[in-house]
Structures are given as structure tokens and as C-alpha cells.
Design a protein that fits this description.
This protein has 66 residues and is mainly beta. It has a domain of 43 residues: Rubrerythrin, domain 2. It has 1 helix and 4 strands, in the order βαβββ. A 4-stranded antiparallel beta sheet has the order 2-1-4-3. Strand 3 and strand 4 form a beta hairpin.
Length: 66
């Protein structure tokens, strides 16, 4: 039997402050994390506080499209 859409999906979390500020000049890049979420429990976009090595602090990382 074939299932429809998977319940658990892989999502990419990206630092929101790096994207807005264009990243500080000394470090280049944007912090990204890969995680999973349950589509039934969390239908809207996921946001977690994670450490950003480019901002050198904990910031909000939001879900982005693949």
C-alpha cells in the first residue's frame, strides 16, 4: 500500500538575523540547521532558538523552503 504524504518531513532552519542584517563583514555565510517536524502537530512554519556561529549568539532560526 502506498502512503500519501509523509507525516514527518525534513526541514531547514535558517538564522533570521543574519538574513536581515546581511551577516557581519568578518564572517561570510548564513547559519543553517537540518531537523524534522511532524506535519500534523506543527502545520505552520517552525521557529527555534539555536546558536548562530556568525552572530556569536542564540537567535531565532526559521523554516525555509527547499
Amino acid at each position: 500500500m502506498a502512503k500519501g504524504k509523509d507525516v514527518r518531513v525534513t526541514v531547514i532552519l535558517e538564522c533570521t538575523s543574519c538574513v536581515r542584517n546581511g551577516v557581519n563583514k568578518s564572517a561570510t555565510g548564513i547559519s543553517r540547521y537540518i531537523t524534522q517536524k511532524n506535519r500534523h502537530n506543527t502545520p505552520n512554519r517552525l521557529e527555534l532558538r539555536k546558536f548562530c556561529p556568525y552572530c556569536y549568539k542564540h537567535t531565532i532560526h526559521g523554516e525555509i523552503k527547499k
